[in-house]
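In response to reviewer comment 3 from the previous cycle, which asked for concrete evidence that the modeling workflow produces usable outputs, we include below a single protein chain processed end to end. The sequence was submitted unchanged, and the resulting structure tokens are shown without manual editing.
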Amino acid sequence: MEDAVVTPSPPALELERVVKSFGPVVALRSGSLTMRRGSIHALVGENGAGKSTLVKIVAGLYRRDSGELRLEGESVDFTSTSQSKAAGIAVIYQEPTLFPDLTVTENIFMGRQPTDRIGRIDRRAMRAEALEIFERLGVAINPDRVVEGLSIADQQLIEIAKAISLDARVMIMDEPTAALSGFEVERLFAVARSLRDEDRALLFISHRFDEVFELCDTVTVMRDGSYIDTLPIDETSVDELVSLMVGRDVTEMYPKLPADVGDVVLEVEGLTRTGVFRDISFSVRAGEIVGLAGLVGAGRSEVARAVFGVDRYEAGSVRLHGRPLPGGNPRLSTARGVALVPEDRRKQGLVLDDGVSRNITLSIRSRLAKWGLLWSGLENEAAKVWASRLEVKTAALDAEAGTLSGGNQQKLVLGKWLATEPKLLIVDEPTRGIDVGTKAEVHRLISTLAQQGIAILMISSELPEVLGMADRVLVMREGSLTAEFSRDEATPENVMRAATVAQEVSR
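The workflow returned the following structure tokens.
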């Protein structure tokens, strides 16, 4: 008797040569992706590569112009997000969209609450199912607590629980770890693996290669709106993925240009804010890049905000070129030559509904105004200079900032502050959430600014970025400075030891 022929099951989700345009702009030229059950598949590419457009087509937010979209081998054409969800597809975004004033359980079952035999909402059944899902995921979240106040990580887990309750077989995680701590990332990864082991198909979109290689088994690369290649994780490398993403070899991710280090620009002495940071003292010289490293929650951003004047401090002093810089006055700091590129560019750095030109000139409007009036011609002329120098990719100067990619939004924030001609530039997480090619551009810009004599204080959670760019590295742990290293002394081992083990900085 001959052995029966086993027909392989079709992919859980398959896109083939999908095209999507918005007027004259082609967002997706040829999007292809194959996801299989029991697998975690990575999708990588530069900002603007077409990843988000592809995901929105799968989620039912956009309809494709052409190409094939198949679910379990069957052709589908979603015209709404509800159709996509009903078909078993769930998207977990970087910023969850939950109802903050409702409980965890109510959010999971919103719009489809089970009822008892007389038509009342069966809250006991809802709660029991929510508890069972969290138990399966191995996480402890109180189903009765209100969502408001929960961490981003917990909110993402609620979104995952909602997807499981809908029996989603295809789950897409779009930059889910961007705002998570190390422990929260590990917990999310454990949940993702448990979902994979339940024979679900997962898509993981991230700019963090270490996470891609730790979690995923297959990776698809996109570039300029087109599919480039799909590779098994254990048969590729970071260098190969970078080359595929940018279409060229990126041999120098951290272009450190030679710079003459001059006089002290910034002096911070004994800066203290109760419960946040204490006795912080350091200096930054002209032409020098000082990296501020440490784990999430160490107090780095809070120190930067205090130096700039956004937040007040209770003790200590800040001096700029030897002159005292009073706290709590960011307007004065700006006038004296200090600029702060904040950690959250969308909430703190840009007016998303305003155009490119308006955002770049936000900090220099008083300089551009004539007779108390702001002329759009002068505004556009000033903005054009920085948009060109920073190579901001935009269709027009009046294009809304919110429509630009993450990398181009970061360039807008940099341009806004560089237009003030600062003497001291504080950059907090300068490359968070942007692709590898744009990262290299931002690094080159920072290095060029230092070469021009600007003093730079750079805060980053990416250790390779700190080690690659900084002339000196300061390390914070739990609100205190624990170490200071020269460029030669700043090894990954030394920095991580100082960030995790209590010790006193030696000066």
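The chain has three domains: 13-247, 250-337+423-506, 348-421. We consider this sufficient to address the reviewer's concern, and the full set will be provided in the supplementary archive.
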